[in-house]
C-alpha cells in the first residue's frame, strides 16, 4: 500500500507560509518553491540504493559508499511542475528530466493530456513526478498512469500542498505509489481549489495574474 509522507521540517513550513501569502511576488514565490523542492528532495531520496566503491583520499585507500546504478528521472507535470525541477537537480545533477503536459478542463475539472516526453530508460530509475498542487488528484493519477505505460516501476509523487480528496484519489488508483507533500490542507472548494491553499501555483510561478 502507498504511504502519504508529510514533510513538515520547520524550514519548509516557514517558507510555505510565505508562499501562501497573496502579497508574495512571483520572484519570491519561485525562489521559495525552488528551496522547498530541494529540502523535500533530501526526504524523497533517502532510500536510494548504495554500493561500495574504492577511492583514495590524501591519506590512504578506502572503501566508501556511492549511489548505485541509474539515478532519478524527474517528471514535472506542466506547467507548474517546472518550478520544482531545479531544486531536485541541485541535489542530483545527473538526473534525467521528462515532461508531461496536462491541463484541467475548466468545466469538468478533468485532466486533458497534450504532451508526454520521457527518458527511454525510465524503468531503471526512481521516477519522481512533481506538481506543486495535489487537488482533485486527476492530473497526478493520469501522469502516474502515463509513466507506468512507458515502463516506470519505482515512482514517487512529490507535491507542495495536498488536499485530502486528491490524496485519496491517487492512493485508490495507484496503491503502489508513495506521496510526499509539505502540507495536507483542509479540503477542496466548489471550484476544485485547495483550501486554504495558495491559489493557482502556475499563475503565481510565472506571474500570469
Return the string of H and E elements.
Answer: EHHEEEHEEEEEHEHEEEH
Class inferred from helices and paired strands: alpha/beta
Tally the helices.
Answer: 6
CA-atom Rg in angstroms: 18 Å
Strand content: 25-35%
Number of strands: 13
Oligomer: single chain
Mean pLDDT figure: 94
Residue windows where pLDDT falls under 50 for at least 5 positions:
none
Overall 3D shape: globular
In helices, the fraction of residues equals 25-40%
Describe the main β-sheet briefly.
Answer: 9 strands, mixed
Distance between the termini: 39 Å
Summarize the structure.
The chain has 209 residues and is α/β, with parallel strands linked by helices. The chain is 31% helix and 32% strand. The chain starts with a strand and ends with a helix.
Descriptive keywords:
single chain; 209 residues; alpha/beta; 9-stranded mixed beta sheet; two-stranded antiparallel sheet; globular
Helix-strand blueprint:
Layout: E1 4-6, H1 10-20, H2 26-44, E2 50-56, E3 61-67, E4 72-78, H3 85-91, E5 96-97, E6 99-104, E7 111-117, E8 126-130, E9 133-134, H4 138-149, E10 154-162, H5 164-173, E11 178-184, E12 187-188, E13 194-195, H6 201-206
Parallel strand pairs: 1-11, 4-5, 4-6, 4-8, 8-10, 9-10, 10-11
Antiparallel strand pairs: 2-3, 6-7, 12-13
Helix pairs in contact: 1-2, 2-3
